[in-house]
Amino acid sequence: MSTGLLLNITICFAIAVISLTFAWVLAKNKNLEKQNSKPTLYALITFWLLVAFTYYPTAFRMIAAYMNNTQVDILMYYIAAMPFAFVSVPMAYIIIYVITGNNQVSSYVSVIFAMFGISYLTFLLTNGVIEPVVTSWSSIISINSNIAINIYLLGLFIIPTAMILGIMLLILLRKISKRMRYHTVLLLVSISLVIDFMLTDMITTFDRMQLVARTFVLIGTVLAYLSYFPPLTLQEKLGIRQHKYEPFDEDEFMDSEDSDYV
């Protein structure tokens, strides 16, 4: 097997396994979370499940590419595109809920992002894809629809990224605990890395760029895990040591709105 394809397959499986494991750990410990944090926790679990369900078929797509099975390659691409189209939905819910604390408003915004995802899938399935180009590093499939790409860039990339950057800036300006700042900023950075480089992964036409993008997605999944379970040495160095890490505490964030900026 080509070393490049082997590495690609390994990275895809690693992303899927870490994401699924992280979602399982969060779900297993959901009863320990504060009641006001549970809506964002459920959205976070959904987000990482969607990432996992995107990269499992992607890994099998790389295996099919190595075996020169074009039909399975394309089929796995379509399967991976379905969860991929909706990764921004739980992300939007998390950010809006953190800002407003309103479940209804967060749900409405999530529906808008879901409509972007449905539109993307509609154009993708209607127009199809160009036959994959298999190299020693990867299998590149191009979308045969500029409209689908534009919908993706606007609804699933530009707006979500801007939302993440906005909430990160707001958090950095608020007076909140070191633990909360570390946890939330690192979690948002990880989500931003995952969403941004998943986009690069799906639309790039360069095999090595795709591999680099998947490497950064993998880094994002690891950072997400570290945002909840940082090593003891890091906890001590940052002065954030405690036994359990919770999702963003909306009460702490909302209460800080009346505080002066740091």
Automatic annotation (TrEMBL):
<keyword id="KW-1133">Transmembrane helix</keyword>
<feature type="transmembrane region" description="Helical">
    <location>
        <begin position="76"/>
        <end position="99"/>
    </location>
</feature>
<feature type="transmembrane region" description="Helical">
    <location>
        <begin position="111"/>
        <end position="130"/>
    </location>
</feature>
<feature type="transmembrane region" description="Helical">
    <location>
        <begin position="39"/>
        <end position="56"/>
    </location>
</feature>
<feature type="transmembrane region" description="Helical">
    <location>
        <begin position="6"/>
        <end position="27"/>
    </location>
</feature>
<feature type="transmembrane region" description="Helical">
    <location>
        <begin position="150"/>
        <end position="173"/>
    </location>
</feature>
<keyword id="KW-0812">Transmembrane</keyword>
<protein>
    <submittedName>
        <fullName>Glucan phosphoethanolaminetransferase (Alkaline phosphatase superfamily)</fullName>
    </submittedName>
</protein>
<feature type="transmembrane region" description="Helical">
    <location>
        <begin position="212"/>
        <end position="234"/>
    </location>
</feature>
<keyword id="KW-0472">Membrane</keyword>
<feature type="transmembrane region" description="Helical">
    <location>
        <begin position="185"/>
        <end position="206"/>
    </location>
</feature>
